[in-house]
Amino acid sequence: MALFAALLAGVAGPVFAADFVEPPPVEEAPPPVVEAQPVDVGGWYIRGDIDYHKSSLGSIDYITYGPPPGSNDFDSAELKGGFSLGGGVGYKVNDYFRTDLTADYWFKSDFNGSTSDLTTTSVEVSKMSAFLLLANAYVDLGTYHGITPYIGAGIGGARVKWDRVYDPNTTETNPGSTNWRFAYALMAGASYCLTDKIILDAGYRFSHIQGGRMFEFDTTSSGPGFDHGMNTHEVRGGLRYQFSGNNGCAAPVVAYQPEPEPIYTK
């Protein structure tokens, strides 16, 4: 009997031991890989701008018929400040480069000047307006907390229109001239993301318009007259609306990857 109990204990021991064997360890699956979707960087945009500008004129000279005949210069020449409205269409090539075509209308600015001869001094007044067309390129210098500083340059032309030039104290008057001239611009500023498509733009622009004819000959006065160009300092603000592509405002979109099933080893 004792021998039977010993044999039974010897057989049952391995059976119960087998029932308590720990399961094999489960190998953890690697974390899911989330890959960024390809982003359409380039995109078309439109823009609208407003500015306040102040122009400085170069020298102004005019032809005289004597005595003695020749050429005289204005003693003084000043353009008052003015406002402009503009718009344009552009394309953002990548995160750091964009280009656009812009058109700006400069509202009339008052002109005050003076001329003199051996005996008299004359006051000269007029008004000047312009239509400025530029092809521009910009380098965006990176986006920091939604703000993107940039620099740029533009080249194009300006249609300058002078009203009649006259002395309000006399009958002297000369018809104003209208003509196209070469122009270029340099700019710097920063943009700020208002939404994922609307961007606020503020900056400074320096523009130069080449000289040209200012007024024509009139029988009651001398002429024609020529201004020798103008340098303009502009403080600008506006909005850009980008139709497509990544404008640097929205967070990048990533593809959803489902979690893989756990992998068990035998």
Walk me through the structure:
The protein is mainly β and 266 residues long. It has one domain (43-242): Porin, CATH 2.40.160.20. The protein contains 1 helix and 15 strands, in the order H-E-E-E-E-E-E-E-E-E-E-E-E-E-E-E. It has one helix spanning 2-19, and strands at 43-57, 60-65, 69-73, 76-79, 82-92, 97-116, 121-140, 147-162, 165-166, 173-174, 178-193, 198-209, 212-215, 225-227, 230-242. The strands form 3 sheets. An 8-stranded antiparallel barrel has the order 1-5-6-7-8-11-12-15. It is rod-shaped, with a radius of gyration of 38 Å.
Main attributes of the structure:
about 270 residues, mainly beta, Porin, 4-stranded antiparallel beta sheet, rod-shaped
Nutshell version of this structure?
Residues 1-17 form the signal peptide. By secondary structure, this protein is mostly beta strands.
Number of domains: 1
**Secondary structural class:** mainly beta
Largest beta sheet: strand ordering: 1-5-6-7-8-11-12-15
Give the end-to-end Cα distance, rounded to a whole number of Å.
Answer: 42 Å
Q: Which CATH class is shown? A: Mainly Beta
Query: Helix coverage percent of residues?
Result: under 10%
